[in-house]
Amino acid sequence: MKSLRIAELLQSPATDAEVVVKGWVRTKRGNKNVAFIALNDGSCVANMQVVVDLAKFDEELLRKVTTGACLRVDGRLVASCGAGQGVEVQAEKIEIYGTADPETYPLQKKGHSLEFLRDIAYLRPRTNTFGAIFRIRHAMAYAIHKYFNDKGFYYLHTPLITASDCEGAGAMFQVTTLDLNNLPKTEEGAVDYSQDFFGRPCSLTVSGQLEGELGALSLGQIYTFGPTFRAENSNTPRHLSEFWMIEPEMAFYELEDNMELAEDFLKYLIRYALENCREDLEFMNKMWDNGLIERLNFVLNHEFKRLDYTEGVEILKASGRKFEFPCDWGCDLQSEHERYLVEEHFKRPVILINYPKQIKAFYMKQNEDGKTVRAMDVLFPKIGEIIGGSEREADYEKLSARVHELGMNEKELWWYLDTRRWGSAPHSGFGLGFERLLLFVTGMGNIRDVIPFPRTPKNAEF
Predict the structure, then answer these.
(1) What is the bridge-based pairing of β-strands 87-98 and 154-155?
(2) Is the pTM of this model over 0.85?
(3) How many secondary structure helices (H) and strands (E) does the chain include?
(4) Range of the domain at 46
(5) What's the pLDDT tens digit per position in 233-255?
(6) Count of domains observed in the chain
(7) CA–CA distance from 366 to each of 21, 64, 320, 355, 429 (Å)?
(8) Are residues 372 and 429 in the same domain?
(9) CATH label of the domain that carries residue 246
(10) Does residue 58 belong to any structural domain of this protein?
């Protein structure tokens, strides 16, 4: 007989039908006559209650049914007498796929800290919290692809191994096959990368944007969605060394078009989560963040405020608030500044635009004032910046001059600059850190808890 997922069975009518259910034991309790096993297979937060008539089963078999054990149960789906569930399974046959020693199994029936669960990341998806988080993560990934597909975007796979530094920050992981204990050297004493696998220095990508722009200037509108890497020694609740990025790039989009797409995209994702992950969101709202669902609806129900960076700084300086970090014109705003604008001043999401060019990347389109660029950051409650983007510089001379001004290597960017020589066009794009989105949608406070196996400084377990 075909087994059904517990999520399906819990929605089934109690027809006294024969069913097969499989999963992992969360708890077992009972009395002299009956045992109640809570079984979970990862398909939903709720468990299936399995009722066991002790007289029908071997005592030695039932002794092995402990928290963490994996079972197959054949039985009958009937109406439940207990509160909180509509149906339960009356067991007729139990097969143990795998036992779990109760003396050593780490996930016993008690509260576990998030820090402890990170140390056993290979088991934490079996908890209610991480089961909910990773189901939401799946739903958001699916919704991202659906959104762009339905809007006529093409999914472009950009390289993970690259010779260019998109952000110009230099915080990149080097990729090499050279023997680090016996590096080949040039006559000048430098490492001879001509003998390396690619014949030149290469690194893991920090962004697919530059290659994404090439796609947009050919296919019209594309998006990337893949892993990116930053070798920054940042041990904060908001940074990972390996994370996933969504980066749409659109030909013929100016800054206003870019802002409209970003707002529509974020609202679509949040609406999708509320409509398709309701049970998991309610669990997260109850257990971790009792303002979560209210905050999700807050974003849906408000138009995003468009705000010039200069005006934003003036608002912050006039607020009378003592911020930890300064907020003079020319500084990169911190999370505390961004959250003040969203949560206290405007009381709605904010898109901050026209930043000083000296704090933004080389590829952003310069405004006529010579001081600012057509950048945009989308600011959300609780987390601050969730999206960063811009209209891209389409003029070859201006882009080339900016590369020289920043001391970047034009020879490494020749292919990127060439797109401005042959059929250049206005174009824009933005980047959304997938894990930043998940922090907002799940209500979690640490980015290590919204990715299955976090990579951070000094940590590459599992």
Answers:
(1) unpaired
(2) yes
(3) 13, 16
(4) 4-96
(5) 988 998 999 999 999 999 999 99
(6) 2
(7) 61, 69, 32, 10, 15
(8) yes
(9) 3.30.930.10
(10) yes
